[in-house]
Amino acid sequence: MTVGVWLVVAGLIALNALYVVAEFGAVSVRRSRVRQLAEEGNRLARAFLPEVEDARRLDRYVATCQIGITISSLALGAYGQATLARSLQAALVTADWRVGAAASVATALVLAGLSALQIVVGELVPKAIALQYPVQSALYTQGLLRWSRAVFSGFIPLLNGSATLVVRLFGMEPVGQRHIHSPEEIDLLIAESRHGGLLEPEEERRLHRAIRLGSRPVHQLMVPRPYIEAIPVDTPPDQVLERMAASPYTRLPVYEGTIDNVIGMLHVKDVMEAFITRDRTFTARELLRPLPAVPEMATTDRLLAAFRAQHSQQAIVTDEYGGVAGLVTLEDVLAEVIGEVPDEFKKHQPRPERLPDGRVRLPGLMRLDEAAEWVGVLWTGEADTVGGLVLDELGHEPRPGETLEIAGVPVEVEATSRHAVVSVLAHPLPRLREEPEL
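RESULT FIELD:
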């Protein structure tokens, strides 16, 4: 066995490795990153961008890689059989082995050795490199793929067509190579980025919330009915102005008879304009703007569609009986992703906090999933909020100072208002004594 033989073997393995790097680089690189590099003037990115922008071209690109891997693997096996196996067979015959036995053993040893070398050096190592450096892998191997595609141009349509036919025979519709991820996969990618140090904990939480936002029911975002600030439609103009001036909000729902009959909303801009131009000769009904209504179990996607369709930033939330369950605004939707933004005009909203004695104060309107990081356990029940869960557990109107235990967590009712729980004090479980990040 000469040095030339080993150089050919090494070259075939290296060629296989390049095709593997090209394939995994192409399917794992982010299209947005390639587009960004192309816009910054990267020549390789500009050349590669059409491959990831078009699903069919990416499919042909991957097919070229797979043909290259197959041909280089077959060539390695055939070449090793013709050279290394014969040399080893001759050595075994010289060592008094019978010719038939020497041929069988030489063939088996060479194939096993080359297969192991090919798997490790030509498959696993290149795959790991490509997954760790997808951009560089995709960009720096595209020259080889461009040349290979020209050589294999007659085979690619035939092989892709055959594969499509076989897939359809099994009753499935073929899907080309596309850079798509399910919400669950995106959640996993975000978690991995957090563990890898690329995201801060608060950034991870915001991204997770943004992904789940579209499917979240509206009743989890709304301001409950008892906290809605609204005015009757027959309110005199002077009182309308006083209510709007005293309110921290620029829009107020207007009802006729009872709060269950909301007929629209007033905008502070319209009220001020009417006072200036009409000199108090208007009625609230004349200034009404439409206010969409959505069911409390509707998803946030449907809510945003209603906002867009009716050019509104708030909507009434109705229960299954047609009554008013609450009010939801665009600000509530944004707060779900970025958190509450303090406003100097709004009343102080209770926030969770850790007390010096080790207990935590939780607002009654806090959602159960948000309370989990403060108390150390995920509370579950028919209610969505801490206050609602306390009401369900007690079975009667709560009183300040009343205590109970929920899933092993001692809870004390701190404050109530209008039969609702304003805040509670809870002893978090021992395993979560560190202060959670806000």
